[in-house]
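Lab notes, practical 5.
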Amino acid sequence: MSKANVTILLLLVVIAAIPLAGCSGTPALAGGGTQVAPPAVAPSGGEALVRTITITGVGTASARPDLALIQLGAESIDNDAGRAISDNTERMSAVMDSIMSMGPEEEDVQTVSYSLWIEQVTDREGQPTGETRYHAVNQVRVRLRDLSKTGELVQRALEAGANNVGGVSFTVSDPAALQRAARDAAIADARSKAEQLASGLGSELGSLRQVSEYGGIAVPALPEAYGGGIGGGGGAPMSGGKFSVTVEIQVLYDIAD
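Output from the prediction step:
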């Protein structure tokens, strides 16, 4: 065989050894070598989706208040700090006597604020006049268990020298009992709604998966008056109303087959 024929034969062998691009599973890289493609992932067969019902239940429990919380006191103003304190002490002594005459226990009367602060007096243009005023303030909180005396206690305190009523509110001495009752009502409400939904959709309610609680919120209800009118011998008119607690829960149930 001639040298030319041998050269042509070798060239044909080299060309035949090179795979065509796209015909093999290992495409050629520009820099030489091959990149192995990852194997295809077979479908897992698919797990059945879990069917659930999410529902919100609301429950409310109410009771008549059995406790009145009254905050009041006296403020005395004077250009002299000593006189302001002296006047305030005299006022609050009379106020405390009037409060205790209504029969609360000593532990139910508590000082919540006592302060002396300085006011730099200004004119209408906001410029300081050089005058200084001292404010002596004494505030007490009273827990009154006989709600029928609420208006009279406030009236007597004002007549004795109180000139500041911070607020009057009504509550219950055991709110935890109302929270439990409201929670039971919320649970029953959520269960009833979930069963109705499942039944209406042709299924049955399954196991409980998750529950979350929100609330424990006091809600005012219809008022119920305590005390009489000012000047009528019964003191300032007060309304105790009803004390309510609302609990909201969110539950997640399975739907049974």
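Observations recorded by the TA: Residues 6-43, 221-233 have pLDDT under 50 and may be disordered. Residues 67 and 83 are 37 Å apart (CA to CA).
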